[in-house]
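Format is sequence with structure; example below:
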Amino acid sequence: MLEYLIVGQLINTHGVKGELKATSQTDDPQRFKKLKWVYIDKNGSLEKYDINGVKFFKQFIIIKFQGVDSIEEAEKLKGFYIKVDRANAVKLPENSFFISDIIGLKVYDENNQLLGELKDVIQTGSNDVYVVRDSDSKEILIPALKSVVKEVSIEEGKISVILPKGLLD
């Protein structure tokens, strides 16, 4: 499991006093208001930044970090990812998982036959869809429904599913 989770990306400066515009990579952008600090991933090197303020503008988050007080300083952070440590991550309900924790798990059908590896999760609004790549590099799209996904075991590195009839036809 990853120790740090991506929650956003700094995409541009905002104003001249060091604020940054960010996109959210979480289900709930309002979570940024509760954060006291985050880590900025500068090409693999994590630096902790205290948050002085958060506001929202259209679909973006405007963040003010302590010590970033000019457009020039903010410019240096553009493009980097915002991360939180797992201890400060949102607490998930039972049988819910962070996408980053399940990417890479092996997916097996009801006969314990390997279908492939989970490569991505498409969030459709109604239900997620697992993108599974088989050994021939073909993609299988599996709805992430309780009736389909029977077990997720991060410890064992596997997901067990019962495929809907006709899905592989």
User: Anything to note?
Assistant: The mean pLDDT is 92. Residues 1 and 78 are 27 Å apart (CA to CA). The chain has two helices and twelve strands.
